[in-house]
Structures are given as C-alpha cells and as structure tokens.
C-alpha cells in the first residue's frame, strides 16, 4: 500500500509539472496582433431571413424558416411540338435558357412584375359566343423579345420558360397603374409598430455615447479603426450611466437596454478592452489634455516623438542589414588632399 501511494504521488507531481510547463510555454509565446472582425455590425444587414428572401428571389435552392427544403427553379419543357402558336419560328433551348436566366437575375418582385407586364398584353374579346357569366373578360397575348424581334407564343410556353404560374401574370397586370408603371411592392413596409423607439430616443443614446472620451488604437492604427473606452468600463456600467444621465436631463422616454445596445453596436465601432498593441500613455495624455495642458506637456511629447522616430530608424536599419550584405558593392576610390597654409 505504501509503495502504491508513493507511485500515485509521483504520478501526480509529474502531471502537475507537465501542466505548469505547458502553461509557462503558452504564456511565453508572443501574441501576434490580428485585426478584430466586428461581426455584430453586419448581423442586421445579413440576417437569416434576408438570406432566405434573397435566395427565393433569385430562384436558388434554400431552406425556409420552418426548415422545409425548397429546390431551385428549373425551366419547364414548354408546349408540344405540334403547337401552332409557337411554330413560327419556335424558340430554341438556348434562347429559352437565356430568357429564364435573365428573368431570375432581376432583384425583387417589382422588377419581375414589370418584366411580365411588358410582355403580356390584355385586350377585350372581339365576340362573345357564350353566356356573359362564363365569358372571358379579356384575352391575353404572350410575347418574348429575342434580340430586336418580338415573338408571340402560347401561355404554356411563356409560363414554363419563366418557371412561374398564372398568378404571377394576374398580379403583374393588376400592379400596372394609370401611368403605365408598376406599383411598388408594399409588403414589409408598414409603420404600425407601437413599441418602436423614436428618433429622439435613439439620438439621446448617440449623444451619451459621444460624451464619453475614447482613444484610438495607437500602434495598431494601420490594421484597426476601432476606438476604445477607458479600462474598467463595461456595457452594463455604460447603460447605467445613460439611465442616470437621462433622469438628470428629465427625458420623457428612456431607451431600453436592447435599443441602447443596437445603437452602440451598429452605429459605433468601440471596444471596452485594451487594444492588443499597447496604447502610448504620453500620446493618450496629450489627446485628452486641454490647450494649457498641451503647452506644459510640449517638451515631454516632443522627446517621446523623437525617441519613437529613433527606434523606427534603428528598426529599419536592422531589417535592411541582411539585404545590404548580400548585394555586391562596387569598389570605391578615395582621394586624399593636403592643404597647406600660404
């Protein structure tokens, strides 16, 4: 038992030493600077619903919001070879494929409705041979423009070439107004949102964020445009400061935390932590100082600036030494002159 306990203690010590060495090795590695990608700012522009809508408008395969797989739009076979309406001359497969691709490249339903309304014409029937209740209200003529020529074809060929149903045609003709243009699609444009934050409330969030001093990334300015708040500040503390400021200003409506976060993330590029490359303390004090403070710090700021320039020159000199040694130098002739006083 004693020998087994001793072996177990030695094994624990070995694992502890290995873990300590691994930790020290990780800490000793130099941390390379990588520009931070602000993914939050693009979430509202490229949300999942927008991706589904774009794929649906382009006729691409996608998964609906309920998880249902929807295949890509495919051109139909068209009418039969014996169709007299499409016989003079009949569209080739290459021409139909180009029409299909051009139609589904159009963005939005409004542009697709405009495309259909310019190629389908409705007219009143010349004669009515049936009862008025069952008679057609209009006769529709379907055409495609191939080059400079407008070709007439049947309804089946038109719908299957574009891979649409007849409701697209009915909707497109209903959308044509008195001026001959298409009425814009009004879906998703309603303004009946009672809980929507007003512009004044959002502006109060912007004003409060702009009140707080922030510093740019000093040494990493080439790689990052993000600014930073002082150390120790967090979003929760920032929002509490906003609520206190709003109460002191007697604002009627105080923005919610989600509204404040939305303004902060989307409209600003500010971080709460230190940049990966350290901030120059003298430069930070110089930026935050008043005009009188800048005059007092002028000598200190100039010395710091000269020391940085000297370090940069030494770094450039060190980096250029290997390349200078590899180059073949030409022989140099020295002339010595002696000047005598007359």
Identify the notable features of this structure and list them briefly.
single chain; 3-stranded antiparallel sheet; 342 residues; mainly alpha; 3-stranded mixed sheet
Structure description:
It is a single chain. With 342 residues, this protein is mainly alpha-helical. Among the domains are: 70-126 and 137-183, no CATH class; 199-213 and 227-276; 280-318. It contains twelve helices and eight strands. Strands 3-4-5 form a three-stranded antiparallel beta sheet. The relative contact order is 0.07. Mean pLDDT is 76; it is low at 20-39.
In short:
With 342 residues, the protein is mainly alpha-helical.
Topology:
Blueprint: H1 2-28, H2 48-57, E1 62-63, E2 69-70, H3 93-105, H4 108-117, E3 120-123, E4 139-146, E5 149-153, H5 155-162, H6 166-174, H7 199-211, E6 215-216, E7 227-228, H8 235-248, H9 257-267, E8 270-271, H10 281-288, H11 291-296, H12 298-326
Parallel strand pairs: 7-8
Antiparallel strand pairs: 1-2, 3-4, 4-5, 6-7
Helix pairs in contact: 4-6, 7-8, 7-9
Shape: elongated
User: Can you give the mean pLDDT?
Assistant: 76
Number of continuous helical runs: 12
* Helix vs. strand class: mainly alpha
Characterize the largest beta sheet: strand count, sense, and whether it forms a barrel. Answer: 3 strands, antiparallel
Helical residues, percent? 40-55%
Q: What spatial order of strands do you see in the largest sheet?
A: 3-4-5
Question: What portion of residues belong to β-strands?
Answer: 5-15%
Computed Rg: 37 Å
Q: Detail the poorly predicted runs.
A: 20-39
Q: Write down how many β-strands occur, each being a DSSP E stretch of 2 or more residues.
A: 8
- The rounded distance between the terminal residues' Cα atoms is 106 Å
* Sequence of secondary-structure elements: HHEEHHEEEHHHEEHHEHHH
């Amino acid at each position: 038992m004693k020998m087994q306990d001793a072996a177990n203690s030695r094994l624990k010590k070995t694992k502890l030493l290995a873990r300590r060495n691994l930790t020290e090795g990780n800490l000793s590695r130099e941390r390379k600077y990588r520009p931070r990608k602000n993914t939050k700012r693009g979430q509202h522009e490229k949300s999942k619903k927008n991706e589904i809508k774009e794929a649906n408008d382009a006729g691409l395969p996608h998964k609906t919001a309920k998880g249902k797989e929807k295949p890509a739009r495919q051109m139909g076979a068209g009418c039969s070879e014996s169709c007299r309406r499409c016989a003079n001359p009949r569209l080739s497969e290459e021409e139909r494929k180009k029409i299909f691709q051009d139609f589904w490249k159009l963005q939005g339903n409004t542009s697709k409705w405009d495309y259909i309304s310019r190629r389908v014409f409705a007219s009143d029937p010349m004669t009515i041979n049936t009862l008025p209740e069952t008679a057609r209200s209009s006769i529709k003529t379907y055409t495609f423009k191939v080059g400079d020529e407008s070709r007439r074809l049947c309804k089946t060929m038109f719908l299957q070439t574009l891979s649409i149903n007849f409701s697209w045609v009915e909707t497109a003709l209903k959308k044509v107004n008195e001026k001959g243009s298409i009425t814009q699609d009004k879906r998703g444009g309603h303004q009946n949102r009672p809980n929507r934050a007003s512009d004044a409330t959002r502006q109060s969030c912007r004003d409060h964020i702009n009140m707080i001093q922030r510093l740019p990334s000093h040494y990493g300015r080439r790689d990052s445009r993000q600014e930073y708040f002082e150390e120790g500040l967090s979003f929760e503390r920032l929002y509490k400061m906003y609520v206190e400021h709003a109460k002191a200003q007697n604002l009627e409506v105080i923005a919610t935390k989600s509204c404040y976060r939305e303004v902060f993330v989307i409209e600003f590029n500010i971080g709460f932590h230190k940049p990966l490359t350290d901030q120059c303390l003298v430069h930070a004090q110089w930026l935050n100082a008043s005009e009188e403070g800048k005059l007092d710090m002028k000598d200190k700021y100039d010395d710091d600036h000269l020391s940085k320039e000297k370090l940069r020159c030494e770094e450039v000199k060190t980096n250029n030494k290997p390349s200078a040694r590899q180059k073949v130098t030409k022989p140099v002739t020295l002339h010595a002159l002696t000047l005598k006083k007359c």
